[in-house]
Design brief:
Methane Monooxygenase Hydroxylase, Chain G, domain 1, 6 helices, 86% helix, single chain, mainly alpha
Amino acid sequence: MSKEDKFFETLRDFSGYAGRAGFILGEAAEGRMDISEAYEEAGDLKRKCRGTFGVLTERMYKAYKDPSELDSVRGLIERMYRMVDITKSILGQLDMMLVGETPEELSLMARLAAASLGELEKIMDYTVDIPDNYMKMEARCRRIYTYEDRGDDCFRKVMQKLYGRETTAAELVYWKEIFDHLEEVLDAAAGTVPLLQKIITRE
């Protein structure tokens, strides 16, 4: 197994944590999973990410020497970790309390975030054989961009509702922070696409 193969092997595990974090976020937001249980699992996923981070970074420096490639790989890893971290924060806020009426857009935004992280996990699974799976990887990358666009539309709509109705300051701050975090997950997922494309198309 080459140094790059070992790196991608560890990266696949890392992306699996992000994929699972997205899944439990979607399940909790739609009421199919207890929020407290989801929050506890998200904390466990974050700990696993921290435990894998050192090995992943070590293998990154062994597999890549070009500064530009290192920047891309480092950015990819950091975004994946950040998505798990943000997911834990969202679930923590939802578990701590619910302020006012839950916007119906919460479920959609959570599903889009879950779908994006799920696509990212599947893309990483394809790194076992990049040449044979390249077109499939590209198709899933395009889906992540689509989810980001849909998330942007949903975010604008929910903000219009929150600012356009009689909303208490506490309710506005609470839900805006949660939806900001959800949008950040979608943006981070989309941000991994050009970095990943640069890595998998290297000669």
